[in-house]
Amino acid sequence: SATGGTVTTSGNDRIHTFTGDGNFVVSQVGNTAGSGTKVSYLVVAGGGSGGADVGGGGGAGGFREGKDACKSSYTVSPLNAPAGHTISAQTYPITVGGGGAAPVNPQPNGNGGSNSVFSTITSTGGGGGGGGPAPGTAKDGGNGGSGGGGGGWTNPTRSPCIGNYGDGNTPPVSPPQGANGGVVNPGGSQWTGAGGGGATAVGVDGTNEPTLTSGTKAGGAGATTHITGSPVTYSAGGNDQTPGPSTTTAPANLGGGGGGAGNFPTPNRGNAGGKGVVIIRYRFQ
Q1: Measured CA angle at 199 (ends 194, 201), to 5 deg
Q2: Fewest beta carbons within 10 Å, which of 188, 256, 278, 281?
Q3: CA distance 273 to 251
Q4: pLDDT along the chain (285 residues), means of 10
């Protein structure tokens, strides 16, 4: 028996969904013939925002899932930790990480997302996307739950410079909470930014685009779980969008990375990352 968050049911399971900070208050744990002392959980951090001026996509917020396999029968993601999480009768503060804010001119790089926390389980905010050269050199993506994509390059009169990927699964946990961002591959004078890393795949690398009239690079794929009773995908990486301003908006409470912006020298800004979520599920009857 517990309170906190928005409470729903799916079959014999009760589900507590936290879209903001709160408390999971356990008044009584189950016995060995009932729900026992374990719960299933999903902890998703806030996604990073995209970089500016041919910037890379933001990295997705860290994704951590654990299912109490003995008591629940829903379909999990490939990143499931099968043991669930042991609880006792007490109050568990819940932190839901916010998405990284969109960069403000003349800031080149996106901002990292914030961590989400349930008990001893922490998911790390996604890394911000690397910025393009407005002015200066292309910037690297930030490290985080998933890494931000590297920033691109659009000025052929300058020496070549590329933005490297941000590292995902930082700090490292097992199963991994996210993947690396994409890197900008050298070759040619104008390169798009790279996609941000997602929960289950790296961001797509930036490549040479002679006219920069097209060439959007996708963020890494997220992870899909049925913990709410239906399939939902969380922690998808943000894309680089070329040309023009980013139109990729990361939905709230899915932990996605924000889209990277388009062409230099127009001071386009990347989009904000998506807020995270914490979901706790257990058998109650």
Answers
A1: 50
A2: 188
A3: 8
A4: 96 96 95 84 97 90 94 92 93 98 88 98 97 72 96 59 88 97 75 91 83 73 97 94 65 94 69 97 92
Q: Tell me, yes or no, if the pTM score tops 0.70.
A: yes
How far is 66 from 4, CA to CA, in rounded Å? Answer: 19
235: CB partners within 8 A, 6+ apart = 44, 47, 60, 61, 62, 63, 126, 145, 146, 178, 198, 199, 222, 223, 254, 255, 256
Contact 257, 236 (CB under 8 A): yes
